[in-house]
Amino acid sequence: MGRILWWLLGVGIVLFLVRIVLCKTGLIHMVKKWRRTIIDLFHVYQHYKVPEFNGNNVQENHLYRKVHTYLNSLSSIEDSDFTNLFTGKKSNEIVLRLDRNQVVGDEFLGARVCWINGEDEEDGARSFVLKIRKADKRRILAPYLQHIHTVSDELEQRNNTELKMFINVVQGKNNGRWRSIPFNHPCTFDNIAMETDLKNKVKSDLESFLKGKQYYNRLGRVWKRSYLLYGPSGTGKSSFVAAMANFLDYDVYDIDLSKVADDSDLKMLLLQTRAKSVIVIEDLDRFVSAKSTAVSVSGILNFADSIITSCAAEERVMVFTMTSKEHIDPAMIRPGRVDVHIHFPLCDFTAFKTLASNYLGVKEHKLFPQVEGIFQNGASLSPAEIGELMIANRSSPTRALKHVISALQTDGDRRGNARRSFLESGSRRSTSEDASSEMSGPLCGGGGGGGSSPAVKEFRKLYGLLRIKSSRKSESYDAARDVRDG
Fold first, then answer.
1. Is 8's pLDDT higher than 90?
2. Euclidean distance between CA atoms 277 and 314, whole angstroms
């Protein structure tokens, strides 16, 4: 009897030591893996693939995004052989993300399932593969997928406070054409330098769009809105796009036409965007006039308004920016393709006061009357130029205003004189409000070699500066189109 007790005690000690060795050396994980492998030999499994894109790699598979969100929330991701570590929203927050070709386990209703984060070696196509026992398939598959939908929706709503900005990349190994970064632009309609009346009209138009799904459906129209922002460089077009995105709480897709292979590739980019987004093409006139992109004018027309757009542009806002509409085919910006035209002129005194309040914290100053007088004489600069002067001298508002006055009296006065000269010559030729009519005849290069004269080049360069204050509000917003689509 004593021998048996000593033998049992010895066996217990040996097993205890073996357990310590396994745990301390990590052999326990190998034993568990071998155990799962042996058990797998006695079961038949079903595999379900969730690709990143539907069909022929055209549109995003929303289930893939939900599975991605769900799996990265599992605690079992720590047991994966290879896990990525990223910085979270807070500087001291660490986030774990599953790496490619790794396995993560999960349990649901007493059944164990496995997910494999796969990536094809040939074309780089990404997918998740669900491995589930056939004996458990009918019992848990449908409720398990519903569970994934529910959990991922809750996680997205909880973490959906951060907007994203997407930029297109050249077609490479991976199918995804968009790369994203956090969109943290601080510009809003509260701090943007713009006429209050125009700002309120734009906000009202965007609010009507947000609430207009049933209205657009009843009209048989795609629930989208398109804007054309035109004016000289530095007048705030890009900041206005950021203010729109922050107001709508939409992500931003910035399309670089120089990285688009052809017209079909441009359509593919549109198909891979998500709803609730602002899609932006900046400096459209530069690409069209210089023909510096493989995308044709026809491709841009179809991008703005076509059957593809009607299928893929639901709940989206499209924005095109340019310095002027002079060299643009009217068909590109006709009603239906572009709903609202907004002109961004050079800075006037009202915009200047907004800039002074935002940049310098000054609402009134003894130098304001002098600045107002200079503006009334026709001198002007872009908001970006004035803003830079204020930033450089923000420690002293008086010094900043003196620098602005000096700049207005030199470069700004030159611009003002050029504008006045054009308007005086324009009034002798025509009283039409249409810019193309004012610039008809030899000044537009029509015959006689007039189009290559220095004066004509100067007039064309200053085209964006010529629609000045006398009819600023009527030019700034196309009220007829706003009423039509309101």
1. no
2. 10
By DSSP bridging, strand 224-230 and strand 340-343 are parallel
Question: Rounded to the nearest 10 degrees, how much is the dihedral formed by the CA atoms of 24, 26, 27, 31?
Answer: 120
- Spell out the SS3 assignment of the chain: CHHHHHHHHHHHHHHHHHHHHHHHHCHHHHHHHHHHHHHHCCCCEEEEEEECECCCCCCECHHHHHHHHHHCCCHHHHHCCCEEEEECCCCCCEEEEECCCEEEEEEECCEEEEEEEEECCCCCCEEEEEEEEHHHHHHHHHHHHHHHHHHHHHHHHHHCCCCEEEEECCCCCCCCCEEEEECCCCCCCCCCCCCHHHHHHHHHHHHHHHCCHHHHHHHCCCCEEEEEEECCCCCCHHHHHHHHHHHHCCEEEECCHHHCCCHHHHHHHHHCCCCCEEEEECCHHHHHHHCCCCCCHHHHHHHHCCHHHHHHCCCEEEEEEECCCCCCCHHHHCCCCCCEEEECCCCCHHHHHHHHHHHHCCCCCCCHHHHHHHHHCCCCCCHHHHHHHHHHCCCCHHHHHHHHHHHHHHHHHHHHHHHHHHHHHHHHHCCCCCHHHHCCHHHHCCCCCHHHCHHHHHHHHCHHHCCCHHHHHHHHCCHHHHHHHC
Per DSSP, what are the bridge partners of residue 319? 227, 280
Model's pTM, two decimal places?
0.70
pLDDT tens digits for 137-156?
Answer: 889 999 999 999 999 988 88
29-62 confidence digits (pLDDT tens): 566 666 666 666 666 788 899 888 876 666 788 8
Average pLDDT score over residue span 250-257 = 94
Residue 248's CB is within 10 A of a number of other CB atoms, namely: 19
